[in-house]
Amino acid sequence: MLADFPALRDLDESERSRLLSTGRHRRFARREVVFHEGDPGDCLHLVLDGRVSLRVSTPMGDEMTLALLGRGEMVGELAVLTEDARRVSTAVALEPTRTLAVRRDELGKLRRRNPGIDRMLTDALAAQVRRLSATVLDLLYQPVDKRVARRLADLTPLYGSGARAVEIPLTQDDVASFAGTTRATANRALRALASGEVISLARGRITVMDHERLLLAGS
User: Which of 67, 86, 173, 189 is close enough to 148 for a disulfide, judged by CB 3.0 to 4.6 Å?
Assistant: First the structure.
């Protein structure tokens, strides 16, 4: 149910209906770019199905993943709040993904008539600040092996819950980007976890075998 989406939870029924009626459904294939860093901020996306990663370019030309967002979350809300704003990250669909895209001009009309829309955007931005603050602290103060374990532990609930084994269809390059390190360093951390049977590794996917031990490894 759309009413259960985190981004829409605080809207009343009329506000939610108006927002959803202005949107346009978009589909993205696996690894397709939703928008590029530096693009005009012409719309925000509500993720209906699938998962999207937000990535930024480093001065060295590498990519770092800031967040992985799933069903019910918003992507690109920062750039739609001001005129002529540009995207501050690149959004990539990690799997077949469906979004509801709401244009900035339509969102502006809704904001003027529906105060709940502003509350929704404020909550989304606050959540983004919390995620980025946690990421910065990890990069500054946590060793790579703990960062890799923590990122995998964070991702596990997005891909499954209740099951002992949870498959995460990400490559080691994806994990390295998410942990803010190189592929070679991430590979060593992943193999250490695999040797302890906390995870198992296969081409293009990582299976979490023991989420509790993974949490301990990242703590």
Answer: 189
